[in-house]
Each structure stands twice: as structure tokens, then as C-alpha cells.
Amino acid sequence: MTPMTTAERRGYQQICGEDGAMMVIACDQRGGMRSLLAGTPEEQAAISNAVLGLTKMDIARYLARHATAVLLDPLCAVPQIVDEGVLHRDTALLIGLDASGWDTSPEGYRISTLVPGISARRVRDLGGTGAKIMVYLRSDSPAANIANITTLQDVIADFAAENLLLVVEFLTYALEGEDKAAYAERLPGLIEGGSRICLDLGAKVLKIPFPGTARACANITAMAGGVPWAVLSAGVDHATFLGQVETAMANGASGVIAGRSLWKDCISLDRAVTRARLEQVAVPRLRQIQAVIARHMPRR
Hints:
Distance between the termini: 19 Å
Shape: globular
Helix content: 40-55%
Mean pLDDT: 95
Order of helices and strands: HEHHHEHEEEHEHEHEHEHEHH
Low-confidence stretches: none
Number of strands: 10
Structural class: alpha/beta
Radius of gyration: 18 Å
Largest sheet: 8 strands, parallel, barrel
Strand order of the largest sheet: 1-2-3-6-7-8-9-10
Number of helices: 12
Strand content: 5-15%
């Protein structure tokens, strides 16, 4: 385990609630958000970053004010969400470093890419409490991870030098031609293995996919040795995610960084529709997640 510095711990406290749990609203998606707002590739491509920024600011206005922090990309809603007073003063801000999508190596491995020009110092300039980086990992295929581990090492070093909080996220994926059932069976082990890679590289806060089983969650908690980890929603339906949060929290998770499971059914190019759905659908979902978290945090 790599311990947090005082400054990093202060940043971590700010992305948590009074109970010590993370309840972060993720809306740093670009491609995924466009696919929810429009049906065809042509219509999606026509949606500008400015339009996405307005959608993200509505999500922040209606959801993040009830949460501990919001995760935003540096292309759409930042810095205007701060400069225009949309973000509540008690809501922490994480800046997403990863670019939308990925490159593919000749071997078919996913190569993670970053938004150009966004360093730890730039995150400070944007008013960020800290940042989040996401990389793709296949823990059972070392050759698949070489480029992404290098990226992760560089970013961890940059944020350590700036003494700024960094949340490390990884996603795993099926290799080309891999049997779907076999991949699903490997998934808990792949998530445990990816967590180990991130911890060994010096991650101090983890954002990870649901590990699949209570045992896998407990294994990650034991492996982390005090490094807090949050479960992400990965776009599953809300009822499914509630069950995942219950299992994760019961087995040592420190909270949630959730996006699409909260707002994917709510956003529209019609902002009046978005705002109504966020208030009527997404806020009650958020309250249900918070209730699950609250059942487990008092024991800590």
C-alpha cells in the first residue's frame, strides 16, 4: 500500500461525505453520452462539446449537489461549471484525464489515451480537487498492458510531484475472438488482477468494476491493505447496480463513483426534459444508493 500524503488525504476527505464514503457522480463520458442523446452516428457526431457541457452541468446541478463530488472531463463543462457558479461550493471536483475511446495495437490490445495538455498542474488551474485516470488492463496478458502501465506510471508520478489526489480506474475487456462465457468466468480474477497492478504501481484510491462476487470484493479489500476503492456502475440498470453496491459495501468498498446507472434514462437534447427526469428519476436513485452506503459505513 502506498500511503496518502497529507494533501492527498485532504483531497480524499473532500470527495467523501461525513460518513467517510465516496458518493461521486460520474459524467466525464463523451462518446457514451452522445450515444444516449442521439440514435445515429451522424446525429451523435453533430452534438458539440458545448451541448454536452450543458447536459453535464444539468447533471451536476441536480445530482452532484446531493453527492460528495462530481467527475467531469476537461473538454466540455470545465471550467465554466465553476466560473458560472453551477457547482455547489461543498461539492468536490474530479477531472477526468482519459480521452474518449481507445487505440488498438496490431495484436488487438486496447491502448488508453489521454486528453492532451491535462497535467496535474492544469487540474489545479481548473479548480480540481483531484483527478481520475482510466486505463485498460488484461491482468492475464502482460503484453497487453505494457503501454498502459507506462501511461499510468507517468501520470501517478506527475500527480505525486504535484501532491494532488489521483483516483486510478481500470477497465478490463474481452480479447478478439474470446468466448463470451469464458470471459465472464474469468472476470472476477481479471478485476482482482487489475487491482493488483494498479496497487503495485502506487494507486492510492481505486475506481473499479464490480468484481462479480462477494469473495472477489473481500479479496480486493484485503489486497488493498487500506487503499480505498469505489465501485463503478458500468451502465448496468439501476436495480442491478443497487445489488452490486450492497455486495461491494458489505465486503469492504469505500463508496461509489456512478454515472450512467443514475442518469442514462434521463438525459435529452431537450434540457427541460433532462431536468425533469433528473429530478424525478435520478435523484431518487441516488438516494437509494446513499441508503445502501449508509447501512454499512456506521460499522467502520
